[in-house]
Amino acid sequence: MFDTFDEAFEIADDLESEGVDDTWNDVLPQIHAALHSAMQHSGVTCFTSSRNDQRMWGTYGDNHQGAVLEFSANPSHSRYAKHLMPVLYIDTKPPICPSELLTDKMSIDQWFLGGMFCMKHYHWRDEREWRLLLLADTPQNPQARLSSFEHDALTRVFLGPRIDSKAEREVRDAASTGKRPIPIYKRSISDEDAAEENVGFEVIHSFEQMKYWANRGRGDA
Q: 101-134: string of b/e by CB count within 10 Å (b at 16+)?
């Protein structure tokens, strides 16, 4: 690794091409093996900052029959908040040389690898995705791959307008347990513009719900 291109070119000009090729052919399989291990044993949890997107509800919300869990991104509410990484949407392959994935000690650069795991084609940019990564290059037992979010990190639950009555009861019962109830909102879709609408003050049963609808009326969240 060199500070300038001229310096690198001068050194490369003095190298024997056969030795360079042998070194590269030795290093490249190691990089591929390390990447394969990382891809095989790492994990990712995906989030979106756009909870009212119709396409997202149709695709990931089981055609509006599912539910959305809203989590706080405040580090004081969740230890995971500071580890969330925004997805970078690009329209071309990043110009990355395989050697850039290595540290000076010839091990995989975890920060660089994490950045690569957070790249996606710009056609998906409306998902406004954030990711929580578990980077590992060795097998993980099932328990090590699972971790629960803190109760305080769960702020709201949104039910799809097509959710069946049994599933709705189960979600509402689960949200009412614990040290504090989780506010529940059921989406109502306007037939005219296919957007979420305010269904009226009859849904307001707490100060938290009042804040939600007040913000929606101002065009916020």
A: bbeeeeebeeeebbeebbeeeeeeeebbbbbbbe
Kindly tell me the burial class for residue 61, based on how many C-beta atoms sit within 10 Å of its own C-beta (0-12, 13-18, 19 or more).
Answer: buried
Between 25 and 68, name the one with better pLDDT: 68
Q: Are 78 and 148 in contact (CB under 8 A)?
A: no
Ramachandran bin of 219, using left for φ above 0, alpha for ψ from -120 to 50, beta for the remaining angles: left
Q: Where are the domains of the chain?
A: 5-187
- Say which residues have a Cβ less than 8 Å from residue 204's Cβ, sequence separation at least 6: 210, 213
pTM (predicted TM-score): 0.69
The amino acid at 147: S
Cα 100-40-116 angle, rounded to 5 deg: 35
